[in-house]
Amino acid sequence: MRLVGARMEVWIRLEAVDEAPVMEGANRLIGPGPASGTLWLENGTVQSQEGAVGAHLHINDGATQNDGRALMGSVEWLWVECQTWSMIPLENLIAARAGSPTKIAATITSPTQAQGAGFALEQGVDALVVANRRDLVEAALSVQAQRGEERSFGTAPAASTTSLSLTELRIKSVDEAGVGDRYCLDFLSLFTEGEGVLIGSSASTMALVHSETIPSTFVPTRPFRVNAGSPHAYIMMADGSTNYLSELTSGDAILAVKHTGATRTVVLGRLKIEQRPMLKVSFQPKAHNERKPKEAHVYMQQAETVRLMDRDARPCSVTELKPEDVVMGWTGHGGRHLGQSIGSRVEER
Fold first, then answer.
1. With a threshold of 0.90, does the pTM exceed it?
2. Which of 273, 184, 261 is closest to 226 using CA atoms?
3. pLDDT tens digits, one per residue of 100-117
4. pLDDT attached to residue 289
5. What is the dotted CATH code of the domain comprising 167-332?
6. Distance separating alpha carbons of residues 27 and 45, to the nearest angstrom
7. What pLDDT is attached to residue 2?
8. Which residues pair with 13 in a beta bridge?
9. DSSP character string of 205-249
10. d(Cα 194, Cα 94) in Å, to the nearest integer?
């Protein structure tokens, strides 16, 4: 296991000014009010003798969780306490802090919660806050020691949203996949030939799906549309995060990508969802080092007007693809939580 971030701290919360910690080893003490060498709470902020250290937040629902997400990047520390202990808010906040200097401190109320908070998303919070009880302090110090044994692999980078380096995807197979929900995405902007969006069943490997800008004998062009595939597929958003197609709503900002890798933001106007026969298009990303990347796939409607793009920037219909053909796509870090790139190991098949 590899953990992201610096060594975790342990904070002990004291009930009285003259109370002594039950054990040595705490990084910080929290007192009931201003006192030398301690932190204290004041009007929703965490204070020290030197000034404000961060924000304090009680999380009891989705709205208060979002308040915590909104504070990322604007405070040094975010100390969170859950009304009812839950791992999910901690995981969501850890994912939201990616690329932010904000550190998270979390209150735990039982020894079993120490490991969950300390290793959440294989990263963990930056501090455990415990009452002045021996069992809690021992549990927190134990997790701190385990964290100290790990090596960091850094914060996972988000995809660049000004330009992308596209890669070759070699087709392995094209198989009938039965009938499924097909999502057409209609935008407020018109696409040009050679432009589309990134779609994939894996967040680490996405195919460049061409817009409906190519004339056809039987149907008119729809230059505002991308026939994007199945509801479980990821799509690259304008900020470098990912969403499932099923999560998209009108007004979302999506990343439009040209065959050159140039990008721009396009706004989704509506989704058109219909039952259609589907194909599973499997491909192998081109290796850029000694390690052979894993095979990935995407599900697309079985129709000649649904196209990917080859390495010569020519749109190619999914119904005409065959093994060893090469199409273009994007590969990057696969670890995602709620669409945010994280340092945790995630395997998708």
1. no
2. 184
3. 899 999 999 888 888 888
4. 55
5. 2.170.16
6. 19
7. 33
8. 30, 131
9. EEEEEEPB-S--SSS--BTTEEEEE-TT-EEEBTTS-EEEGGG--
10. 37
What distances in angstroms separate CA 239 from CA 157, 223, 253, one per listed residue? 12, 23, 8
Q: What is the pLDDT of residues 147-194, one digit of tens each?
A: 775 433 333 344 445 678 899 999 999 999 998 999 999 999 999 999
Q: Which residues of the chain have pLDDT under 50?
A: 1-5, 150-160, 336-344
Q: Could you tell me where in the chain the CATH 2.170.16 domains are found?
A: 167-332
Residue 183 and residue 186: Cα distance in Å, rounded? 10
Closest CA to 124 of 27, 25, 6: 6
Distance CA 267, CA 160 (A): 18
pLDDT for the residue numbered 6: 56
Show the tokens assigned to 300: 């697309």
Per-residue pLDDT at 347? 54
Core vs surface per residue 65-74: b (16+ CB within 10 A) or e: bebbeebbee
pLDDT of residue 4: 41
Report the candidate in 17, 7, 21 with the shortest Cα–Cα distance to residue 40: 17
Residue 134 neighbours by CB distance under 10 Å? 10
Instruction: For residue 288, count other CB atoms closer than 10 A to its CB.
Output: 10
Q: What is the rounded distance in angstroms from the CA atom of residue 345 to the CA atom of residue 1? A: 9
Burial class (CB in 10 A: 0-12, 13-18, 19+), 245: buried
d(C-alpha 281, C-alpha 299), whole Å: 6
